Amino acid sequence: MKILVLSSYAPTLFYFREDMMKAMIDQGHEVIAAAPEPVNDWEEKFNERNIKYVSIKGIERTGTNPINDLKGFLSILSVIKKIKPDKIISYQAKTIIYGTLAAKITGVKGIYALMGGLGSVFRDTKKSIAKSILKAEYKIAFSLCNNVFFQNQDDSKTIIKEGLINKNKIVMINGSGVNLNNFEKQPLPKQPIFLFVGRIIKDKGVTEYLEAAEMVKSKYPNSRIQLVGYFDTNPTAIKKEVISDYVDRGIIEYLGATDDVRPYLKECSIYVLPSYHEGTPKSVLEAMATGRPIITTNAPGCKETVVEGVNGFLVPVKNSSKLAEKMIWMIENQDNIEKMGNKSLEICRDKFDVRKVNKTILSTMKL
């Protein structure tokens, strides 16, 4: 069959969905990936994996311009008409909404969506026009899908409670999974080193990470607290000068952005993600696969990765004091780091192996 995988951002499509697309190809199917980024920037990377890449115009991941959204929808419509896929699976909000509608209009029989997380707009407790529109759009999109994949129970329950989906369409998967051949157990460094990897935005808990780092450094000045990630256009993006201030004061080490987190995971001891919400955080799964204990939040998606006190700790969302407390605990209880890291790897192998996740996806899509 011919499968179209649609996303509003090529980097996450490439790095998060690569194993899924490979699994489809291994079953003899043709896979075409589509995202807004230029063909010249991404065609070669996808081609190396026997995946064709096409660009869709107009889709802005964080934009709110309705004219651009209309252009994006028409571009997706044009791509689907040209490719004539047998099945389509969409990932991320705008491409789920416009991709499913375009697929239905063009007569695609197999229409699927993969929810990474509900996002900040949807989780805002205040009523807003943007939230109301998004809910209405999701309701239409989900009604057109054969099935919708969810990565955590909190998100699926919220969508059901809001009356946006027939619960029989929901299929649960354990995040994006992690490739245990690419991410292997690594020896721990002698000194505890904390690491955060992700977009530098408030919703990822970067503000709390910075504040906690300052508290930790005030008690243990020689502690090492690292940050890896790129600056984003998201409405909650943190400015470069904020990060520079913490670097200049010796609170954190900013190591830049990367396409390969493995060298950074190898050099760290404890992985920290104080995110406000996730589908299931892939960066945490990758850290678990390398045998690292986890400190993350008791938030949707994040809490799926930690057994409290066994492979790490869960802290309240937006609570830098509790985060600092658990980071300090790791410094003061270094004998537990390896044991907790081994538990992370056990949980990862049992629950988050990408082969198990992909088996569910392909089986549901009848591939």
UniProtKB/TrEMBL annotation:
Domain Glycosyltransferase subfamily 4-like N-terminal: start-end pairs: 3-152
Keyword terms, alphabetized: Transferase
Gene Ontology molecular function, alphabetical: glycosyltransferase activity
Every Glycosyl transferase family domain range: 183-343
Name of the featured protein: Glycosyltransferase family 4 protein
Organism name: Planococcus glaciei
